[in-house]
Amino acid sequence: MRVGRIVRRHEDRREYTLQGQILSIAPDHKEANIKHERHQGFHARDDDAYKVRDEKQFESIAPGDLISATLVVVSNDAYLKDVRKVGTAPLREAPGRSIHPRLVLDSSC
């Protein structure tokens, strides 16, 4: 009897705290444009689109809301989890911008 070796792949997973303001939310609640602070370890515009794996994360969130969330970066993917509303502020940009993700990972960190 021959027993095969089980190989488990370890994902290169990083997590960051993301704080920002919701600019717009996709109709399916799976992505939102968020104006946010810059983070060391990845380069993104100051206002970028982020997706969630569970659309309930954005269910009670609206444009103008201030949020805190965890940004999970794995391989060639990134998503938000633990999205919490922490306040509201007037929008500086008109809501309804199109959603275009532009996340570039920085492998030097």
Q: Report strand order across the widest sheet.
A: 4-2-1-5-6
Which blocks of ≥5 consecutive residues have pLDDT under 50? 1-10, 97-109
Largest sheet properties:
5 strands, antiparallel
CATH topology of the domain at 13-88: OB fold (Dihydrolipoamide Acetyltransferase, E2P)
Rg over C-alpha atoms, rounded to the nearest angstrom: 16 Å
Identify the CATH architecture of the domain at 13-88.
Answer: Beta Barrel
Q: Helix coverage percent of residues?
A: under 10%
- As a percent range, the share of strand residues is over 45%
Report the CATH superfamily of the domain at 13-88: Copper binding periplasmic protein CusF
Average pLDDT figure: 76
CATH class of the domain at 13-88: Mainly Beta
Number of helices: 0
Q: By helix and strand content, what is the structural category?
A: mainly beta
Gross morphology: globular
Give the beta-strand count. 7
The SSE order reads EEEEEEE
- End-to-end Cα distance, whole Å, is 45 Å
